[in-house]
Specification:
single chain; alpha+beta; Alpha-Beta Plaits; Chitinase A, domain 3; Trigger factor, domain 2; five-stranded antiparallel beta sheet; four-stranded antiparallel beta sheet; 12 helices; elongated
């Protein structure tokens, strides 16, 4: 057997494989035996049909494919290992020929990962916009916590204020027709923090309990329901109840109510500050990493083939489609409105960035001899379980069902290790 390797443009490799008659004949006979065991040929016991009968029944092409499936994987793997090829995708058979002398020739192609000529990646001088916590971060968080632990008092002796929460019935109409999904009974609405149509909540102020009235609003031009975009609407409202929000006094007792581990308000404030500091540190590291990869991509020449970019674009497009549809949008209509070419070009830019980042991460991981340990995987599974509010056993069950998930976890771990090395060795300064 001989394998001739030919390197082509666009990171492709062509293999010309020649297999001698003795080997291909033996494999062909094995294929006949295998298929005769799996295929029931009328008039013959299973596994007993003669070769010429089997060839007519299943077809010579099926037998030849069996030979290829048997011979080629080991040939491909040996060639890849001996030449240390780093593949992007599995080899594909371009052509094959079972010759009259029983020899076999095969032409196959596969794509290699682009070469990464990585320059120095440690000690990079990086300048970023520093993330800083607001000076009143503790006061703001205490206010948010007090909102969470507030109580509601029924109000009977005054009209509604913009700080109240009201219970309402409402029915909405556009052009005299009732809006689908535009009505509700006993709906609790926080007037100051409403996500209703602009102008809706404001018209609920200065109203009495039991009052029935109409309000007029205009739907935004970019409303998610195209039929309602920019439309004038009228709502019939009945105000059932007014509730005043009573905020707790912020003191030691309040701190204990937030969490029993806090004995004093100072302890709660200290915890808030610590969380804020960690948040700022994490954000600045995120900005540092993003800038480092931006610099590395800019200074590292990588010739990425179009086929690799197009595959990544398709993957990005599918992710985007799922996200749009989950949010209640219509991906196809969005594509039509934005323009397919415009969206493709945006996706292409992001795809190229993703590919180059991944290749650079892989090269650094190779240079640093980084590996993924079982402890790394177990730690990541625990993290994922916390993020998705499930058990580690459920994450493990998902991994068993989908091997690609394990590959994704391994890639995340390696990326995190590489990012840590880059950040720890960067010289970071902040823009003034």
């Amino acid at each position: 057997m001989t394998v001739t390797i030919e390197k082509l443009d666009n990171n492709e490799v062509k293999l010309n494989i020649e297999i001698e008659p003795a080997v291909s004949s033996l494999e062909y006979d094995k294929a006949c035996k295998k298929l005769s065991q799996r295929v029931r040929v009328p008039g013959f016991r299973q596994g007993k049909a003669p070769k010429n009968i089997l060839e007519k029944y299943v077809g010579i092409a099926a037998l030849q494919r069996e030979v290829l499936d048997s011979l080629l994987p080991s040939i491909f793997q040996t060639t890849i290992d001996e030449n240390k090829f780093d593949l992007v995708s599995a080899p594909s058979i371009e052509s094959y020929d079972f010759k009259d002398d029983n020899s076999l020739t095969v032409v196959a192609k596969f794509e290699l990962k682009p070469e990464v000529n990585l320059s120095e990646y440690k000690g990079l001088e990086i300048e970023i916009e520093e993330y800083k916590n607001a000076e009143d971060v503790i006061e703001k968080e205490l206010k948010n916590l007090s909102e969470r632990f507030s109580t509601l008092n029924d109000i009977k002796d005054r009209k509604s204020k913009n700080t109240d929460i009201v219970n309402i019935d409402f029915n909405g109409y556009v052009d005299g027709e009732e809006i689908k999904g535009g009505s509700a009974k006993n709906y609790m609405l926080d007037i100051a923090n409403s996500n209703f149509i602009p102008g809706f909540a404001e018209q609920l102020v200065d109203r009495e309990v039991g009052e029935e009235f109409k309000i007029n609003v205009k739907f935004p031009d970019k409303y998610h329901d195209e039929k309602l975009q920019g439309k004038d609407a009228e709502f019939n409202i009945k105000l059932n109840a007014i509730k005043e929000k009573i905020l707790p006094e912020i003191n030691d007792e309040f701190a204990k109510k937030v969490n029993s581990k806090f004995e004093t308000l100072d302890a709660l404030k200290e915890d808030i500050q610590k969380f804020a500091d960690n948040t700022a540190k994490a954000e600045n590291e995120k900005r540092t990493a993003a800038k480092i990869f931006e610099v590395l991509i800019e200074k590292t020449p990588i010739n990425v083939q179009d086929s690799m970019i197009n595959r990544e674009v398709r993957a990005l497009m599918e992710e985007f489609k799922q996200r749009i549809n989950m949010q209640g949008g219509n991906f196809d209509k969005m594509l039509e409105q934005e323009g397919h070419q415009k969206v493709y070009e945006q996706m292409k830019e992001e795809a190229l960035k993703r590919i180059k980042t991944s290749l650079i991460v892989g090269k650094i991981a190779q240079n640093e001899n980084l590996t993924v340990t079982q402890d790394d995987i177990q730690s990541k599974i625990v993290d994922l379980a916390n993020i998705y509010r499930t058990s580690a056993d459920n994450i493990i069950a998902e991994i068993r069902k989908n091997v690609n998930l394990l590959h994704s976890i391994n890639q995340q771990i390696i990326t995190e290790k590489v990012t840590r090395i880059l950040i720890d060795n960067a010289k970071v300064s902040y823009k003034k």
